[in-house]
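Query structure, 211 tokens:
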């Protein structure tokens, strides 16, 4: 009983320590403007949940928001691409290729990715982008908390709980009207070496034609 009590006291301290060290990133205006990508699809919000294959624990949450432009909110995430500018944890220029890179980076031999998409009004999509832009750099272990913060403040997403746990967000998101779900499974190594090599080759600009 004493050990359990001490463990409960230690949890807030662990979370507090985990909250230290978020590193702000701020891409210049020119890079953000140049990367802007408009998909032409109906406005939507997509929740990505990275789930451990053994035990089914939720390991990470991310949000793709498709409105006047398509962006990816990847709180405390490690994915990046040299052609995708980032402001804190919001990535701009999420083309179809970048969306696939993001999924492939997270789906690997130890983890699956569950993708849940729901269509929203243009106003809700824009509100989600604004909330993500103003959220700031997210601390380690707070990905679920930040994603639930952003969703909870949007019309139609009031049922999303305030939680640190990606699986709880995923379960609540799955109950939203009209949601579609996809499972992404991959056997790539956990060190991301395969997708990083592909990303690197895709980011190299072709040489200019000789005169």
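Result returned for the query:
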């Amino acid at each position: 009983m004493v050990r359990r009590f001490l463990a409960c006291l230690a949890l807030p301290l662990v979370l507090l320590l985990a909250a230290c060290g978020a590193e702000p990133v701020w891409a210049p205006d020119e890079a953000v403007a140049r990367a802007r990508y408009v998909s032409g699809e109906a406005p939507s919000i997509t929740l990505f949940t990275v789930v451990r294959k053994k035990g089914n624990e939720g390991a990470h949450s991310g949000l793709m928001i498709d409105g006047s432009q398509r962006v990816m909110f990847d709180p405390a995430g490690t994915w990046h691409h040299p052609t995708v500018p980032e402001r804190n944890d919001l990535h701009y220029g999420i083309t179809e290729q970048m969306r696939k890179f993001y999924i492939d980076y997270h789906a690997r031999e130890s983890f699956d990715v569950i993708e849940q998409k729901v269509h929203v009004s243009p106003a809700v999509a824009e509100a989600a982008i604004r909330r993500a832009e103003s959220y700031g750099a997210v601390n380690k272990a707070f990905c679920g908390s930040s994603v639930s913060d952003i969703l909870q403040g949007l019309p139609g997403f009031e049922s999303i709980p305030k939680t640190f746990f990606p699986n709880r967000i995923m379960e609540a998101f799955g109950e939203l009207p009209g949601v579609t779900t996809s499972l992404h499974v991959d056997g790539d190594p956990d060190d991301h070496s395969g997708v990083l090599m592909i990303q690197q080759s895709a980011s190299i600009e072709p040489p200019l034609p000789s005169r």
